[in-house]
Amino acid sequence: MGMTTMIDFEYQVIWSKRKSVQMSMHPDGTVKIRCPESTPDEYIRKYVDGYADEIRKYLSRHPQRLAAERAVLTTADVSRLKLEAKVDIPGRIARFGSVMGVTPDAVQITSAHKRWACYIRRGKHHKLCFSYRVMLLPEELRDFVVKHELAHITEIRHTPAFFALLAKYEPNHYNIADQVKRQEALVPYYAGKQGG
User: Torsion-angle region of residue 114: left (phi > 0), alpha (psi -120 to 50) or beta?
Assistant: First the structure.
């Protein structure tokens, strides 16, 4: 586990067996930096410096106020977003799938409230599932989620080969993945039954 350091704000460093450095900012006001075990302290500090303005802006807003201001989706909103996703996502899959040379056997739009998407393999059958929540992402990030899941058709697990493949179609994938994760605390959420 890690330590808490001070620039003019606090952040927690968590070392683990991962491949890249990732920052996350949470509604309770905590900032966490997850990084490979061998990452030098100086590299981490420079990484945080690169996001310092963004972190200060985030922390300047009281966490409870941030949670209170975050929009809440109604059941009708979820139904509408699912319908939009059924039109939007297959088009992106067709576009990027043709470039990446893969085609899923099935695509499903789900009501999952805790994940953006997932890949399911049963034998030689490849299925991609996308939550209605992807419609809450900016276009670039939505494209990334689709490319990520399509890459799983070729490489099932998050191996070096998977990330090498993803990098061919999204060279900036580590940074974009961080942006997608940060959206968790920003996009409207569904206050009804939780699942997925």
Answer: alpha
Q: How many domains does the chain have?
A: 2
Beta bridge partners of 126: 121
User: Is 196 inside any structural domain?
Assistant: no
Contact between residue 130 and residue 143 where contact means Cβ atoms under 8 Å apart: no
Model confidence, pTM: 0.65
62: domain range? 3-69
Whether residue 100 is found in the same domain as residue 128: yes
Which of 45, 69, 93 terminates a domain? The answer is: 69
Query: What is the per-residue pLDDT across 45-101, written as a single tens digit (0 to 9) for each?
Result: 888 888 888 887 777 665 554 554 567 888 999 999 999 999 999 999 999 999 999
Dist. CA 58–CA 8, nearest whole Å: 13
Residue 128 is inside which H or E element, if any? strand 125-131
